[in-house]
């Protein structure tokens, strides 16, 4: 798992914990916390060495780890086995209710009726002839009651098994230990601190930061992406904030065309390919190579507007 993917996973987990702030822990949240240590084992740090702004990822990643540790240190996450059993019991309440209801309202009356007829059969055989109407009638009632009891006893076992199977399937929740999760986060934090040189990394990728104005005209004013104010856009493009631009529908070919043009014009040569790769991934551009070189006859008005903005920006760079 890439570091940026794991960073998204941490942010997602943090969001769920915040939403759950005033409530008891749910099974879904415990499941996520139980699986969390496995995500650390699959995580790779190598992406930091390839990222345009490793310091930004580095600092934000450390910050979310610290926030998660603080959140999980809250006493309500320190669940002992008794609390977890309560959660399990709550999740089995329907199956438990079905069993108890059937036992009390159906099986027990059938059992009592069968036992009462059984006792009467034993006593009446001393009073009535075996072929008498009374004995024949009683034996019929006894036989019917016995069959009913046997059938309900089978149903009762099924209800009981459903309850216990559900309970058993949740016993893995007893493995939950918030301290072990905090320890894993601490281990991860220590590993990151060994890469502290990323903290002050300040590499610039733009030949001239004024080019961000041209990028804003292309991406936002031409409506290739959903509206974002200039300050937020500039901070994201300059690598001061995590990129969260959202493309508009049907703009892939224009975004691909823009990425190629911007990479060749405004981005430093040593950073150009990596920048393009990250932008292609961020906007999820498919068949990128097929979209970057339309013939003049196939260029739309938007292609021409992109060309015009690029040419004007290029002229500024040359002055």
TrEMBL record:
It comes from the Bacteria. This is Uncharacterized protein.
């Amino acid at each position: 798992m890439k570091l940026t993917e794991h960073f998204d996973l941490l942010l997602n987990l943090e969001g769920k914990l915040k939403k759950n702030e005033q409530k008891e822990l749910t099974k879904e949240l415990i499941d996520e916390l139980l699986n969390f240590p496995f995500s650390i084992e699959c995580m790779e740090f190598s992406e930091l060495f390839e990222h345009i702004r490793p310091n930004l990822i580095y600092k934000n990643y450390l910050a979310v780890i610290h926030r998660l540790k603080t959140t999980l240190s809250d006493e309500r996450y320190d669940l002992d086995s008794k609390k977890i059993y309560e959660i399990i019991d709550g999740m089995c309440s329907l199956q438990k209710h079905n069993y108890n209801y059937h036992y009390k309202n159906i099986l027990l009356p059938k059992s009592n009726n069968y036992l009462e007829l059984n006792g009467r059969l034993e006593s009446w055989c001393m009073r009535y002839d075996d072929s008498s109407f009374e004995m024949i009638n009683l034996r019929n009632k006894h036989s019917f009651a016995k069959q009913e009891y046997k059938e309900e006893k089978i149903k009762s076992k099924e209800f009981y098994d459903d309850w216990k199977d559900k309970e058993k399937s949740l016993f893995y929740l007893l493995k939950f230990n918030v301290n072990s999760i905090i320890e894993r986060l601490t281990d991860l934090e220590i590993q990151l601190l060994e890469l502290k040189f990323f903290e002050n990394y300040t590499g610039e990728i733009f030949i001239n930061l004024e080019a961000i104005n041209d990028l804003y005209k292309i991406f936002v004013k031409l409506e290739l992406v959903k509206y974002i104010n200039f300050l937020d856009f500039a901070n994201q493009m300059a690598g001061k904030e995590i990129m969260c631009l959202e493309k508009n529908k049907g703009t892939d070919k224009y975004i691909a065309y823009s990425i190629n043009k911007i990479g060749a014009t405004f981005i430093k040569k040593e950073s150009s390919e990596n920048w393009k790769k990250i932008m292609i991934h961020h906007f999820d551009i498919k068949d990128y190579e097929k979209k970057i070189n339309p013939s003049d006859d196939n260029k739309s008005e938007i292609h021409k507007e992109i060309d015009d903005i690029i040419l004007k920006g290029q002229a500024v760079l040359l002055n």
